[in-house]
Amino acid sequence: MQLEPPDEDLPAIQVSLSEFVSAAERMFAPDQLENFLRFVLAGRLQSHNKLARIFLNARQGALAPPTSEFQVYRDIDSVIGITWDLPFQLPMAIFPLASFRDTLTEDNHLKCPLSCPKCLHQDVIGVSLHRIPNMALGKVDRRHITRIFFPGLYCKGQNPAIPPETMTLIYEKCLRPAVVSLNPVDRSRWPITYSNAMDLARDQKGQFHFGTVDFPSNLLNQLGPKLREMFQMQDGLQDVFFVHELRGTKGASHHDPCDAGARRAALDTVFHFFDMSLVRPEDWVVDIGLEIQHEGHILQWLTKGHLQYQIVSHADWDNLVFKRYFPAKGALTAKALQQFPSASYYRQWKALMDGNDKDEAEIIQNHRLMPWFEKLYWVPHPASDRMWSTKKGGKEWIMLPPGEPRNCPRLAVNPRFIGQDAAVVLVAGTS
User: Fold this and answer.
1) Using CB atoms within 10 A of its CB, is residue 63 exposed (0-12), middle (13-18) or buried (19+)?
2) Whose C-alpha in 35, 51, 77, 346 is 20 to 30 A from the C-alpha of 245?
3) Residue 201, C-beta contacts closer than 8 angstroms, at least 6 positions apart
4) For the segment 259-317, what is each residue's pLDDT rounded down to a tens digit?
């Protein structure tokens, strides 16, 4: 019997001791000898004509500790919903020139039923939202974005980017006329042509700055239908719909999952700027996170997890990583920064810096806090817009466990410990 190398990339199955013994006993028969040896000696299981790798976890199936020994909190991480109008109670900041970076280009795991005349068949198919041509329309809250989706432009296998000539049509025949007809007082704030809007948004170095124009809340109930009416008259732009996404709300809606009143209050907090009479719950997805705490303990999970890490340079650890977590007094906060501003330690740190003069603040940062920070083995690698980034990394990122790059948490590893008494490994029992 020939076996592949022990570390080949296979689907993983975790089993408890009792499950392992039971399965081995069932295989202990003359006609299954090869399967038995493969299972008990090599940790391989042939299942549905596919080979899987077996991980024996003595804690699998173990009873959870009494609920009195740990605390569970629930949080609303993000919200995504589809509407055919603009259901807001606050003014909306609309992009005359759609921000390119706010176009949905990554899979958010939601699909839209779509009947596409350009496809080879007329059946209704489920299309991932990021495959449907779309553009940013505007924002109502700092962490909110509303996009317009154009199912009529979808063509299977083709790049979903909207070509410039279509963007010109969208702006000049639909977006600007709809806004100006409802709110003519802002006519001068909307460039006459798409080309003019491009020129105004570009600085002398050719960089784009995507400004917005506020649209009054009392007219928003008319803007959605007006836009759909305008788009319906243009070939390929029919049947548009709006997708609203609230991102990075984690930490703003902690609540007890067993308290119905607290759950309702948390949902109301997240949806505070929506007109709920215009929202159909079946068209929305709410991403719920659970936070489990046990005082004095580090919780380990019974499922296999992945992470990617990068051993940063000494200069980057001190000047990029440290100063992102603990910025100097008066340092400017990036507009797109998420998670940091809502973290309790970050707010306390900013208050500490603001409460001291520049010299004392520098002493606190560089002489009192820096020596402690240098003792950390790793921290979440801070991106330019958030604390926890899970984007798929390039060649500079190392996967744990080893394997193909994937979307998973990024860690920055302190270079001071590499080559001394530390190695970058997964702690036994966590996978």
Assistant:
1) exposed
2) 346
3) 96, 97, 208, 209, 210, 211
4) 999 999 998 988 999 998 888 888 898 888 888 888 777 766 655 567 888 889 999 99
